[in-house]
## 1
Amino acid sequence: MNTSYNIPQPRTEDKHEMMQGFMQNRAPETPRNEIKMNMNTPGIASVQFGPKSQRCICHKCHADISTTIKWKTSKTTHSAARCLCMTCCFLCACLPYFMNRFKRRLHYCPNCDSYLGYYE
């Protein structure tokens, strides 16, 4: 059984009133050219860090700085040592812990010593 329902269409004036009500209750639109910033560092764009010290603006003291680097052991360090152990190079297994190549590079601000990011 095919039954069609006759639904009356709203008048043009009603459509206009409904649209006005919808526009008033709606959140304001954001401009399309707006740049999205990282919310952890308000007002400063995020930076990709590399293996060497680099210039950037500190998110804490807002100074134009060249980062200082500190090295920390990471999963890469432990994996390299594990691989050396598995290949029967037990005496060389400690070498990755002394080589900065296998460590994570942590970038810090030289002024306020705040952590900025890392490179692995």
## 2
Amino acid sequence: MALSESDDYKATLCQAEDFADDSDSGPNLSNPFIHIRMPKASPPRKRKNTRGKKQKDPSESKIKRWTESDDDKVTFLREYGNLKWHEVTEFINGRHTPQAVQMRYLRSLKKRNDSLTFAERSKLQKIVEEDYKSRFKRISTQMGPSFTPIRIQKIMLMEAGLGDLLQDDKIWTKEEIANFLDEAAGDFDSFEVPWRADRLPSRAADYMMHRMFRSYNDLINHYVGGNASPASSSSL
């Protein structure tokens, strides 16, 4: 039986509809030539078993500082009580492990009662001498800007009854001061104060210079009020 042109057109439309996708109902799954990629299902996550495990205290992870009280207890209990390291730890409420206590004692505390080495004694002597030389500067800093080191020395000389050393070697007249100002011609950067004006008088300066260079043993007696001698200081 022969088909008309209209029948051929209808057959072509039917074939096209078989391969077309319907936007409402999704892809045509009945067509074997269309491959649909399905998403893979992810495996279920495994939950960590936290039952029976002790939760860590955040405070335990913090580094505990060594206090002066800890050092005193460790030194006393170790040297005078002859306790073992884990026993010493109990007296500081377990703030540090026995290993930490042992390292602290061996590195920092054991040398407290050791004799001075030659290098340590030389270092101590240098520090004491420098501290003595800078004593007036330290005092002036604490007193305030109006108390210069020179003024502190003058005050102490007056307090010690040595005010006669502060008498000026030369009294500057107004004319001499005016000459200094004229030479500066208003340029204050180039104007320099005469040395006798901002320093101790010569007699006071000589006296303080003699007091400045004192021996190490004299400085020890000055600091502690004892009667140090070379033999006694070298035995430390």
## 3
Amino acid sequence: MEKETSKWEDEYKSTKATGKNVAIEYGTSSLKGVLSSETVNVGGITITNQYFTEALATKKADPLLKAPFDGILGLGNPHDSATRTLSVWESMIRQGKVKKKIFFIWLGRPSLFRKYFFQMSNILVGSKDTNVCSRGCQVFIDSGNSNMDINDSTKLSPDCSNDKKLPDVTFTIAGRSFSVSRRDYIYKVNKNECLSRFVETKDEYWTLCMSFMRAVHTVYD
């Protein structure tokens, strides 16, 4: 495969192309690009040699092409990165730019949570114990995922006929209860089509996502 070059390298002297081609798949589509590095400033904090992927090609139907933003700033673990490079947050830590190794994400409604991976001990639909996590489940929070990779016990009807009757879903974590309402876990395509944000998974760990984060203020340390 012929190596791509950075489209910014000639215009900005601080942009450096690595010559490494990148292919990334995500929920709605995929892209091809090139790995480059740049000096980045976020909120008055400047970091050097920050790697990022320049997207050079994607599918015409990719909904991100119509998004009102220019890029995605990931905060995930480097080991889960498609390029195995440091996120902006990890670079800030390694370059000594932050006093406390803590960041939080606020999407909507207040409460508190912390850490990447954690143990969840129970899931209730309304007041009914689902018994699917009574022995403990390993869970992590993914801010880049719209769906929760947790087996669905809500019994949502695809035609939306019972969507207004469904109860809160409550997760028991460290002895505390964290609830998401139907407005958090139901995606209404139109008035006659509803999708649950809970999706079946065979992974050894489960994933909470933006639907959870809208209801729960998440803090990472």
## 4
Amino acid sequence: MRLSRGAAGAGLVAVVLTAAVTGVPMVLAAQSAGPVLRVTPAVVKPTDHITLSAQGCPVPAEAFSEAFDTVVLDTNGRGRTLMIDQDVPPGRYEITLSCNGDASTASLVVAPPGPLVLPLGTIALARN
């Protein structure tokens, strides 16, 4: 079954919304035979913490983005927690995982300070 572009986009928004609200790890990397990058949570604010993990990579991998400094991820899939830089402007950021010549990407959304408003704009969560 094929979804129209609109239906596929609505599904992605629903998945991002569900992941952000439930805290379930969100896999935004392309599913392929190469490494898989997991980002949890997928929507944050500056100074929030995220966890990155790499699966399917036989050697330590590097993850880099404009939202944080380059980090090395080990091969056990446990993940690494890091803080989003305080001066990162709101927006969508690509995270690239480099693993033994293969690459995988995922997206991270940095929201502006204040209540976290999810993509649909119908739910606001107060953050401590």
